[in-house]
Design brief:
The chain is mainly alpha-helical. It has three domains: 124 residues, Arc Repressor Mutant, subunit A, CATH 1.10.10; 87 residues, no CATH class; 185 residues, no CATH class. The chain has 18 helices and three strands. The chain has a three-stranded antiparallel sheet, covered by helices on one side. The chain is elongated and about 85 Å long. Pfam families: RP-C (PF03428), RP-C_C (PF11800). This is Replication protein-C C-terminal domain-containing protein. It comes from Paracoccus marinaquae. InterPro entries: RepC_C, RepC_N.
């Protein structure tokens, strides 16, 4: 015996009497926008793509004003055979789709004793059940939109982990060509789902995979650091001569910081060019990697100094990764990517910045923007626009990130001294 799904309670509500109240769409919602909303949330209602599209088509056959009028309910009184012709479907297929929509609480079938439909008899396909659920469906639509944004963010983080992992493995191959630990890491990375498969993973599975990818990348970076140490190579978080000569100017520069209006990056009067290069942020399935594995800014200033200049929210993320003095480029990029959606910056604005500036400068731009937004009395109304403005200034050669760091440091010191 075939399984029959129970009808949604909304489908059995009685709107049959002329004296019944007629539900209306809330606020400024109209027929077409509501039908599109239903189509978006249909999978969560157990409605397939064909039935969801049919709902949109059926809704378009009604009068738009009936969806917002308190004295009538939109309906289709055409016979089932006529509806099938209008949808371009067979009658059995149309009947199955109608039943699917009714079970989901999106339409109500009212028929005469012989199955007939007519305007005079008040029979046909009625949409009052769906309208009565408009607020509920809007909440569901908002949840799905938030999940889609989270999925975009997670795919971006997986892309970052893959790029950094490949670069770490390249470094290990140069230092220790026959390292068994590196081979084990490479073998595990080969089992990762492709970029295309990431789009088909549900949110829970995607979150789990991205956490595993992050951990494998950090394992590879730990191994690279150990091998560099034994081979006498440079370590990313070791203080260099350039850091020693830069730190003093960072904390003691007395030149006035130009405070501009909210939404515009501060203009720097000294010309300190940020690192060159701009990796493409799109993940390549062939394993090719681009982007810096190490940060010129971290080498110059040290991870502790950058940590101190970060916002409290970014510092909270970084503290969960390592002690400040042991933070790596991967950790700062990871934290910056976490702050991007929290600041209301779109993935497109972040990807554009990363492609134009390179990960190093883009990461530092987020750190600066985030820190300035946290300053008392300083309001950045549109962080996404602020980042785009920084990107444009970078392209024109007018973005001076070291000067911005000097400004952050001076304001921190002034705040501590007050």
């Amino acid at each position: 015996m075939a399984f029959q799904r129970a009808a949604h309670p909304a489908a059995t509500r009685a709107y049959r009497d002329t004296e019944d109240e007629h539900p209306t769409l809330p606020g400024n919602m109209q027929r077409d926008s509501f039908a599109a909303l239903v189509e978006r949330v249909a999978p969560r209602l157990g409605v397939g793509p064909a039935a969801a599209h049919a709902f949109v088509r059926l809704a378009s056959m009604t009068r738009p004003s009936d969806w917002t009028s308190p004295d009538r309910t939109p309906f289709i009184y055409a016979e089932a055979g006529e509806v099938a012709k209008m949808l371009g479907l067979s009658q059995p297929r149309t009947r199955a789709i109608t039943c699917e929509l009714e079970r989901a609480g999106l339409v109500e079938r009212r028929t005469g004793a012989n199955g007939s439909r007519s305007r005079a008899a008040g029979t046909g396909l009625y949409f009052g059940a769906a309208i009565a659920r408009a607020a509920e469906l809007k909440v569901l639509d908002d949840q799905l939109a938030a999940e889609r944004q989270q999925e975009i963010f997670l795919r971006g983080q997986r892309s970052t982990h893959k790029r950094h992992l490949i670069r770490a493995l390249e470094g290990l191959s140069e230092i220790s060509p026959h390292c068994p630990e590196a081979e084990a890491i490479r073998h595990e990375a080969d089992t990762w789902p492709s970029a295309d498969r990431l789009h088909r993973m549900d949110l829970a599975a995607l979150e789990s995979h991205v956490d595993e990818a992050d951990q494998l990348c950090r394992t590879a970076l730990d191994l690279l650091q150990k091998r560099e140490k034994t081979s006498g190579g440079p370590l990313e978080n070791k203080r260099s001569y350039i850091q020693d000569t830069t730190e003093e100017s960072l904390v003691s520069c007395n030149e006035t910081v130009d405070r501009r209006s909210a939404g515009k990056p501060a203009h720097d009067k000294s010309h300190v060019v940020p690192p060159d290069g701009g990796p493409n942020c799109r993940e390549k399935d062939d394993g090719a990697a681009s982007g810096a594995l190490k940060s010129e800014f971290i080498a110059r200033l040290g991870p502790q100094r950058l940590f101190d200049l970060a916002s409290p929210e970014m510092q909270l993320y970084l503290c969960g990764r390592a002690e400040p003095e042991y933070l790596r480029f991967h950790d700062f990029v990871w934290a910056a990517e976490r702050r991007v959606p929290e600041l209301g910056i779109s993935p497109d604005a972040w990807n554009t910045a990363r492609e134009a500036m390179g990960e190093d400068s883009a990461m530092l731009s987020i750190l600066i923007l985030d820190a300035r937004k946290s300053e008392p009395g300083h309001v950045i109304f549109k962080p996404g626009g602020y980042l785009r403005a920084m990107t444009e200034r970078y392209r024109r050669g007018e973005l001076y990130l070291i000067r911005s760091l000097i400004g952050l440091s001076e304001r921190q010191r002034a705040g501590q001294g007050s």
